[in-house]
Design brief:
Layout: H1 2-17, E1 30-34, E2 37-41, E3 46-53, E4 56-68, E5 71-76, E6 79-92, E7 95-100, E8 103-108
Antiparallel strand pairs: 1-2, 1-8, 2-3, 3-4, 4-5, 5-6, 6-7, 7-8
Amino acid sequence: MKRFLALLLAVLLLAACAKPIPADKQDFVGYWQAPNMAMLITADGRLKYKREKGTGNVSIDAPIKAFENGGFTSGIGPLTTFFKIDKTPHEEDGVWKMTIDGVELQRTTATLAEI
């Protein structure tokens, strides 16, 4: 029972860490995808990220802490990851694109369950 309560408390604390995406960054909200990378940014400030690199995979499911210095950080406490924004979200021929960490992503209609 103590483990369950500790886990429940940890989940609630993690959920409380997310801050809504600022009004001037709302174009980042959505599901973004490239062949080896996928990123879901929710309006309430959560990031779910997966990337295949060589023989390993990286995944993150954490709140976005801040947009700053040409990018944004995501993580919990001192465990953070910085994502460099090379090109902000923009529309090209009816397709929304952005470039993060050198990877061009396109906004799609996928759902959270698909990432």
